[in-house]
Amino acid sequence: ILDMQGVVVCETHAGLNYISTKYNLYGKDMKERALIDMYVEGMFDLNELLMKYGYLPPGKRDENFANMMDKAENRYFPVFEKVLKDHGNDFLVGNQLSRADVQLLEIILMAEECKPDILAKFPLLQSFKARISNIPTIKKFLQPGSQRKPLITEEELPKVIKIFY
């Protein structure tokens, strides 16, 4: 549940749409908004795989790791590398930061936590990551001690497995 100045929004997507609109991260017109929606929706499958990975029991991690990295390297990252190349701009859509850029950065960071060299074949995504990570508000958020949470540790995993499995 998101409660922003008396506006209560349930559901993740609705909350993200609200925040994106409120903070001008949702494009300048309907065309940009449609592209942002398309890219964000396209990222959700990989995002879910990456988020669930840290919570899998040890026996299931190995089998899921190969599938997850295959999808990242051969399905998703090539698409976004091409989007950046074709768009020829610093951002996925338009000429300013959008929700799609923030979501892609988070996916890149999660993927690198699993496989640090995952962007080796994607020079435009490497540049994108560096550029977006250096936007002052994002840079501050990525500093140690921020609200961004790292992957679950091996010591925490048994507690989580006990709850969910």
UniProtKB/TrEMBL annotation:
Its EC number is 2.5.1.18. GO terms for molecular function: glutathione transferase activity. Residues 29-151 form the GST C-terminal domain. Coiled coil: none annotated. Pfam families: GST_C_3 (PF14497). The keyword Transferase applies. InterPro entries: Glutathione-S-Trfase_C-like, Glutathione-S-Trfase_C_sf, GST_alpha, GST_C, GST_superfamily. Keywords: Transferase. GO terms for biological process: glutathione metabolic process; xenobiotic metabolic process. Belongs to the GST superfamily. Alpha family. This is glutathione transferase. It comes from Zonotrichia albicollis (White-throated sparrow). The lineage of its organism: Eukaryota, Metazoa, Chordata, Craniata, Vertebrata.
